[in-house]
Amino acid sequence: MEEISQVSGSAAELARKALGKRNLVLVGLMGAGKSAIGKLVAQALGIPFIDSDHEIERVSRMTIPELFQAYGEPEFRKLEQRVIRRLLRTGPRVLSTGGGAFINEDTRAAIRDNGLSLWLDADLDVLWERVLKRDNRPLLKTENPKKTLEDLMIARYPIYATAHLRVKSRDVKKDEMVGEVIAALAATLEQSDP
Ligand SMILES: Nc1ncnc2c1ncn2[C@@H]1O[C@H](COP(=O)(O)OP(=O)(O)OP(=O)(O)O)[C@@H](O)[C@H]1O
Ligand SMILES: O=C(O)C1=C[C@@H](O)[C@@H](O)[C@H](O)C1
Ligand SMILES: [Mg+2]
């Protein structure tokens, strides 16, 4: 056990070094685990965690479904863009984004320039099982939400694929996902070392 914690400790150290003052920005579709895994990654790295959906709800004093209903998706994206640009100014942190944030060109450019993006890539069935459990995603309020999720995957995956890093999100223990995210981050340092 001692040996395992030393290995993961050194991976976390390398990952922290790789990040420098930047934010690690988690991107990916609804249910990929950006919020759940992001929070644990931040704890493991000893840096703050922030979630753009939560921050949007905090500043607007409205829930995301309320924002979509009152102002529509385009206004939500503008607010999301402003909030994420602001959040990127402070680091290092782990910043978990909403599922559509990285699809917005301006938000994506800000993330590319100021953060290190990591795509939590998941298969449809994994996402579907997870999003079924909560009723808080306005984009899935359609006649056939599974088909909507699949259409979003087809449209968005080529864009998420432009993130700096990619980790496959699977139904394994959350700690295992955390280890994989940290290893991916640490590997960027090894790659950049002469
Ligand atoms: N590896 C995992 N094993 C089991 N459950 C998981 C795993 N990763 C995430 N989950 C669960 O799946 C659900 C969705 O995860 P989460 O809210 O983190 O997704 P998200 O990517 O932030 O989605 P959104 O874009 O809607 O904010 C949560 O209940 C979370 O606890
Ligand atoms: O995938 C999306 O476009 C969204 C995902 C959620 O995180 C929220 O940001 C909102 O429901 C929109
Ligand atoms: Mg989330």
TrEMBL record:
GO BP, one annotated term: aromatic amino acid family biosynthetic process
GO cellular component: cytosol
EC code(s) of this entry: 2.7.1.71
Keyword Cell cycle listed: no
GO molecular function: ATP binding; magnesium ion binding; shikimate kinase activity
Principal cellular location given in the protein's record: cytoplasm
Domain of life: Bacteria
Swiss-Prot/TrEMBL keywords: Amino-acid biosynthesis, Aromatic amino acid biosynthesis, ATP-binding, Cytoplasm, Kinase, Magnesium, Metal-binding, Nucleotide-binding, Transferase
InterPro entries in UniProt: P-loop_NTPase, Shikimate/glucono_kinase, Shikimate_kinase/TSH1, Shikimate_kinase_CS
SUPFAM superfamilies: P-loop containing nucleoside triphosphate hydrolases
Annotated positions binding ATP: 31-36, 137
Alphabetized Pfam families for the sequence: SKI
Cofactor(s) annotated in UniProt: Mg(2+)
Cofactor note: Binds 1 Mg(2+) ion per subunit.
Record's function text: Catalyzes the specific phosphorylation of the 3-hydroxyl group of shikimic acid using ATP as a cosubstrate.
Similarity comment: family membership: Belongs to the shikimate kinase family.
Protein name: Shikimate kinase
Organism per entry: Rhizobium setariae
Record lineage: Bacteria, Pseudomonadati, Pseudomonadota, Alphaproteobacteria, Hyphomicrobiales
Gene symbol of the encoding locus: aroK
